Amino acid sequence: MSLVTVAVLAASTTVPAANAGPDSGASLAGTDSLQPLAGGLSPAQFAHPETRFKPAMRWWWQKPLDDAEALRELQVISDAGFGEIEIAFSAGAWATDEQRTILGHVLDKAAQLGIKISMTMGAAWPVQTPSTGAGSGFASQELQYGRVHLTAAQSFSGPVTPPIDAAQLPQARKLVAVTAARVVDAGPDVTTPGQPPAKSTVLDPASLTDLTAQVKNGNLTWRAPAGGNWDLFAFWSRENKGNYTNPFDADASRKAAQDLDQIQIGKDNAPKLRKAGADLFEDSLELHGTSIYWTPKMQAEFRGRRGYDMAKFLPLMFVQGESDFPVPPKEPNPDFALSDGSAGKVRHDYYETLTDLYIGNHLQVFQDWAKQYGMQYKAQAAYLQDLEPIRSFRSLQSFGGRSETESLDAGENLPISTDDPAWRNSLAFQQTIASGVHQAGGDLLSVELGAFFKPAYSMNLDNYRDLMGKEWAAGVSQPFIHGFALQTAGAAWPGTTRFGETVTDSWNDKNFPQWSSWAALNSYFARGTSVLETGTAKTDVAVYSDSFLSPRGSQSLFDAHRLEEQGFSVEYLDPQGLARDSRPANGELFPGTSGYHALVVDQRSLGHDAAAAILRAAHAGVRVVFVGALPDHDTTFASGGRGDADVKNSVAETLKQPSATRVASQNDVAGALKRLGLAPRVASGGTQVLSQWREVKGGAYAYLYNPSDHPATFTPSFGVQGVPSEMNLWDGSISPLAQYTSGNGRTALPVTLQGREGKVISINKDARPAVHVVGSAPEGGQLAISGGKIVFRATESGTQTFQLSNGRSVDVTAEVPDDDRPLSGPPSSRPSVIEPWSPWSLSVKTVTPSGGATVTVPSGLGDSQFQQFRLKDWRDITDLSGESGVGTYTANTTLPDGWRASGGVFLDLGHVDGTADIAVNGQVVGTQITDGRQWDIGRWLHPGANSVQITVRTTLRNAVSKYNKKSTASQPYGLRGPVTLTPWRDAVVYGGR
Questions:
Q1: Do 102 and 70 contact (CB within 8 A), yes or no?
Q2: Residue 46 φ then ψ, to 5°
Q3: Helix (H, G, I), strand (E, B), or coil: what is residue 206?
């Protein structure tokens, strides 16, 4: 029996070690007990989340469809813990009687199962329907120009010039305008659409002339004025190469919706959707234009919204490649500029109008349509286009729609690493989208998770967890897994796939070894989602953003690294959101939703209304930090010089306020906020941490994420005073924390996060703190509340000193058997849980086109006892090279009659390439998705014969390469270790008396 010596101040008493395990009973008076947060989640709601919080699975339907198989797969996907299934139609399996019939059966079955069905809007993205395609008048349009060079006083007479690419794109076109301008500085002509000029052609702003009224029957007679060279322009509208529904035309959106009513949904399925439907989904907004986007009512809309006619300014709006998916990270050289520098204002007005039309004529129309089915319209809105993303998502959310982003278009890479040049940009990408959702008061932001242009069949479940950890930290809440393929009879092994071997991943339940592990991961995901969709999302800092959203290159909206090192959370704010919606009050922007305490502005130009809003924010006590050179001109054209003066005046007045300052660089912002007296909601004191803060009536939930590859131990201070608990996303437990400091409106506690680990802390501001440990974190174990007592769960022998909140000091000396004992050397005089274990044996059930076989590896796995060595990769075992499947590792021991677990034993698998099901003596312990978990197996060990079985499930990648011979890609597989056993003992630090 282990002995523990406990000394309290001058008194010394020797007592036996506490024998309370981690699951022992209720708290005693005098220690903190679990008290749910008012307005938050109950322990039962967290442990067993509602269906609406469960992950969703995209489900690809391809021809030929199979009704019975669809219903079988629906059941299988539901049984794996998915709460929503999103049907993604494909050409040939859409808009047929069979499709609508099977859809009806699926909706009936989903209603019985209590899960929800969503579906794509058509079989392509963006939306394309028969009545809105080429020649319909509702197809997507673009504007292209042609031009003629004229010298001073030269005459032109004849047909107006055709588009510059008319020979390559001879489709029908309509003349929109004819204009002229004097050339100040000629750049090279654009001869290949999409390729910007080396420099812009500079035009004289005073010379811009609209000649459209002089065109008769397609002909123009015009004489260039004397003095200088001139360009004569003709502008033509036409359908663009995409032939999708025009996203800027409300009539086109309504026409597409009518098609979807008839040919996809069908009248018999409408009432079924009201029972089992979730959303009608428009996938990636992959708009492609050869020139710039257009819509028939553009000129009238521009005039009404911007206050001036656009015709004579049309040359200034052309930027090659800007109106094409994906938008470049920085604006290329425009085709044309003005000598007074104001051309950028005209383009800004064009882009703002384009976003206006997209929001009002596309997003709102489709959400209004979805309501008739009791559903929501869901969109991956605006991003990767020359559209403003934050306003688009905020508007979609305010209309009642659902918002979605994706890991692929964000530029995420595997493995997740801060060393990846794209890491910062992909984080800002997701934060930007989350900003619009949160500003509108939205809770749900889903992500299309797991699509990569890499060899298919290579996604381990831990890859999805790794991705989602970062997405949660950016403000995303729910994963939509990409994806599951509806199987067809006779499909080539390993089953029907949506994208072949080029994109991850087309799951099925029959051949993917890791399919059965989804249930464990989905429980984890559902708990995280439930936390991040409860309460109100609050963020510390808003960064002013007036740009599009692109994943290309390593460009970043803002380098927030220094802010993250102090714990500041960051989102982004667009000009209209700031000027019209932010409602500054009591030191916050968006006080009812996002609650930004600070605004950072690193821009050289601002809208004059946005500049005025910044001044109002400073008056309201919001901290304002300008970075670098101050903004000195307006972004809108019609305001002219008056707008520029207004911007300068507003900025100057803002800097006179005590809540505002100016710094030289983005790295200086964190220090400036400290000088302005602002602390983050999660102050991390120099440790880079990403966080999400969810405020509820009774306190707050904080999701903490360590973006580093390495462990981080730090003591964050949280911006609410109360009693903390840890919410375990893996097992659903909520545990009051034994060590923290509370006062002055804040709560601080020691936290350790493994590399890329996320953790949830709840703080109950209504709970009255009981006696707890204060001070620094202990070594060689951890503190816990168990059996109503504060205990030190020691994994190493030694003495610890603990300070209690009641002013007492406690010394605890623990002797833990077999800690760090090597397997070699003389046997212990004490019965050991470590030494007697046999080497591992391995039996693998392979997955092959012929059905697989059982391969036994009785030895030769490496020096494979516990504690010391790593085990072999399956690729290095002759009989398993190139195989995939399910491998069971077994180790046996006989423990003597005198052995007993007078505490517990932690099992750590080390590294596993795959998922792992753990069983001890035939009893299921759990499923491990990611490395770094410790499993307490002491309760299942006993004197006599014992066995531990680790069942590893691999991906399909190696077998697909071996048997299909289309790729040589391979991955490491297996239990790699080192596998360790760590005994622990509980020593009482405070017993509640």
A1: yes
A2: -75, -45
A3: helix
- Please tell me whether residue 712 adopts helix, strand or coil conformation: strand
H or E element, residue 183: strand 173-185
pTM for the whole structure: 0.94
pLDDT tops 90 at residue 13? no
- Distance, in Å, from the CA atom of 691 to the CA atom of 538, rounded to the nearest integer, reads 10
What are the pLDDT digits (tens) for 280-332?
Answer: 999 999 999 999 999 999 999 999 999 999 999 999 999 999 999 999 988 99
369 membership: H or E segment, kind and range: helix 364-371
Strands 155-159 and 116-120: unpaired
Q: How confident is the model at residue 816 (pLDDT cuts 50, 70, 90)?
A: confident
Structure tokens at 253: 């959106």
Residues 6+ apart with CB under 8 A from 23: none
Contact of 765 with 720, CB cutoff 8 Å: yes
Q: Nearest CA to 742 among 760, 758, 714, 719?
A: 719
Compute the distance between CA of residue 889 and CA of residue 887 in angstroms, rounded to an integer. 7
Containing 103, the helix (H) or strand (E) segment is helix 97-113
Please state, in angstroms and rounded to a whole number, the distance separating the CA atoms of residues 557 and 855.
53
What's the pLDDT tens digit per position in 712-762? 999 999 999 999 999 999 999 999 999 999 999 999 999 999 999 999 999
Identify the DSSP state of 334: P
State the DSSP string of 862-879: -S-STTT-PPPPGGGSGG
Q: In what order do the strands lie in the sheet with 915-920?
A: 854-857, 841-846, 885-895, 944-953, 915-920, 923-928
Measure Cα distances from 697 to 290, 347, 694, 700, 716 in Å.
Answer: 52, 45, 10, 8, 22
Position 34 scores a pLDDT of 81
Give 3-state DSSP helix, strand, coil % of the chain, rounded to 5.
Answer: 25, 30, 45
CA distance 524 to 47: 10
C-alpha 903: how far from its chain's center?
A: 40
